[in-house]
Amino acid sequence: MDISRLFDFLEYQLKNSPREDSIVMKKNGEWQPTSTIEFASKANMISRGLLKLGIKHGDKIAIASTTNRTEWNVIDIGLQQIGCISVPVYPTIAPKDFQYIFNDSEIKLAFVSDSDLFEKISSIKENVPSLVSVYTFDKVEGAPNWLEILDMGTDEANQHEVDAVKKQVKADDLVTIIYTSGTTGNPKGVMLSHRNIVSNVLSSNPRVPKFPSEQPKALSFLPLCHIFERMLIYLYMYNGIGIYYAESMETIGDNLKEVHPDVMTVVPRLVEKVYAKIYDKGASAGGIKTKIFMWALDLVRDYEPYGNHGFVWTIKHKIADAIVFKKWREGVGGNLTCMVSGSAALSPKLNRMFWGAGIPILEGYGLTETSPVISVNGMNKEGFGIGQVGKPIDGVEIKLAEDGEILVKGPNVMLGYYNKPEMTAEVMTADGYFKTGDIGEMINGNLKITDRKKEMFKTSGGKYIAPQMIENDVKQSRFIEQIMVVGEGEKMPAALIQPNFENLKAWAQSEGINLSDSKSEIIQNEKVLKLFQDEIEKHNKSLGHWEQIKKFELTPEEWTIDGGQLTPTLKLKRKVILERYKDLYKKIYDRFPGE
User: Residue ranges of the AMP-dependent synthetase/ligase domain (predicted)?
Assistant: First the structure.
């Protein structure tokens, strides 16, 4: 069948590969599956119920959920079928941001997951004239529930209306507005059409590896309001892959062992956390166990996927695999064909070690404005490279500007920024290419990202610093949870560091060092500072002299999404962090930019 609109993917699965576990979420300790038939039926019920409520083609409907859940998808398809425009919103944003987004897009209805979000949106409801009602997925006292709309749609008498509206929905129609979380100013609403996202799914499909399982499963935890995970949900539907939603970031380890997924999407920070736990366990095992663990790590430290490693190395690797790496794979469910990484650059060193351990990671690249995939690695020698993000997907053109900025053209490029024609014009070239804001280079047809154009900076000596590459390397230390390299216009680079306090305390205990319970006191401890100095110097050895971190300051608080230092995909909000720790910056440089 011809797929031109997003809701066609569900119909395609229904006709070609229906599942009993099309979407599965865990509730009250039990995995609750929704079959393809039930999924399609409930989506139709939502469409019928919304039409009865007077919702029309072109109305904007917001969805915000604290966790990924089945209801999100049912609402999503139900809205698409009657030509509504979904506005997915991150649950962690401030009430003022909800107010701005709701007013900018003229939200008519909102669906939220729980009481906290209901209260947050209720607090700004009177300042949003277009907002008629807020429905919840959980049962919340005093709040209308989404089941009310589902119940209204049980009567199939107006299904002919749904069918008629579906026929009117065109590929080029606006289907969603996704507001990007800016660190300064108001967020921008990226307008994506059915064609934008459908083309991205179909063009990404050739990169999907073959899974040995007859009924492959995917574990999903990245927010559905993020276009990366959302596009992949449609891709899973298209391929008949069962979608299992992790309960939370904290439960991923348990959920992996329960679900045994064939594939999952990750962000680099999750890979770093997984590796840090593996390393800490191996390093603290003691005696011969630790020696074997370290030997196995050294064996794959420079691993080259699809390379010829020789007979002797292969024998050693088989031994390491049986003793060490098999346990790594069991720890991630034992059935992963691959993980797909996006949102930020992944450390090449980590990627080599995971490939060497039999857990391939395919790194991809894209932006919300490109629906999102521009390029992605494939599981073949020609289309893969460590530190690279693969060849462009079908139909997507890449060219590099004079300064190395990556320019993109294709059916996946957004319609524009909502209500912002001038801003849209600024990011497009005269010949129709989208300016990504990223710097890159092509290597044998594969794209390599070198840094964010806006994040690169010069020292006062005129040397360019690419902070993300340095940060990815240093974060491999089990004592460093987060790090931000600073120093634009200064003599030398420095760093603000959020320690991993759990690993710090374990280290102190093993060394017989008595640490205070106060994090503010811990970061001033001389032995702790010496430890971090040693860690920084160890990583400085692989950097050019001008790139080396000369000074650093530790922060006593953890950097979190709720705290505002991280985006929902765990990227640094650099301007927020810089402003929050301006006193530490002044301590390093005796001044603060702009003062």
Answer: 13-418
Q: Are 68 and 246 in contact (CB under 8 A)?
A: yes
Q: How many domains, in total, are found in the chain?
A: 3
Closest CA to 336 of 271, 257, 263, 275: 263
Enumerate long-range contacts of 303-306, CB under 8 Å, 24 or more apart. 303/352, 303/353, 303/355, 303/356, 304/352, 304/386, 305/352, 305/355, 305/360, 305/381, 305/384, 305/386, 306/380, 306/381, 306/384
| 484 and 439 housed in the same domain | no
Coil/strand/helix, residue 184: coil
In this structure, the strands spanning 494-499 and 464-465 are unpaired
Query: What's the residue count for the chain?
Result: 595
Determine the 3-state secondary structure of 147 from DSSP: helix
442 in the same domain as 503:
no
- Do 30 and 77 lie in a common domain? yes
Residues 6+ apart with CB under 8 A from 327: none
Q: Which residues pair with 551 in a beta bridge?
A: 494
Tell me if residue 358 falls in helix, strand or coil.
coil
Of the chain, the end-to-end C-alpha distance in Å amounts to: 62
User: Is residue 442 classed as helix, strand or coil in its secondary structure?
Assistant: strand
Q: Is there a contact between 155 and 44 (Cβ–Cβ < 8 Å)?
A: no
CATH number (domain holding residue 485): 3.30.300.30
107 in Cβ contact with 60 (< 8 Å): yes
Q: Which helix H or strand E contains 104, and what residues bound it? A: helix 95-105
**176-185, 391-400, 430-439: least confidently modelled range:** 176-185
**Beta-carbon count within 10 A of 567 CB:** 21
- Residue 249 has what pLDDT? 82
Quote the radius of gyration of the chain (alpha carbons, Å).
25
For residue 392, the SS3 value is: strand
| Cα separation, 558 vs 133, whole angstroms | 36
Pairing of strands 361-366, 373-376: antiparallel
Token pair of 341, please? 């990484």
State whether 152 and 83 are in the same domain.
yes
**Predicted pLDDT of residue 326:** 96
Tens-digit pLDDT profile for residues 281-328: 888 888 999 999 999 999 999 999 998 889 999 999 999 999 999 999
In a domain, 419, yes or no: no
pLDDT in tens, 122-166: 999 999 999 999 999 999 999 999 999 999 999 999 999 999 999
Predicted TM-score of the model (pTM): 0.84
For residue 249, tell me if it sits in a domain: no
Tokens 């947050």 sit at which residue?
A: 120
Measured between alpha carbons, how far is 79 from 57 in angstroms, rounded to an integer? 9
Range of the domain at 552: 457-589
Residue 420 included in any domain:
no
Q: Average pLDDT of the chain?
A: 92
Q: 77: number of CA atoms within 13 Å, CB side?
A: 21
**Judgement on whether residues 55 and 176 belong to the same structural domain of the protein:** yes
Question: What does the DSSP 8-state code read for residue 187?
Answer: P
Distance between CA atoms of 446 and 194, rounded to whole angstroms?
Answer: 28
**Helices 348-356 + 268-283 axis angle, to 10:** 60
Pairing of strands 60-64, 107-112: parallel
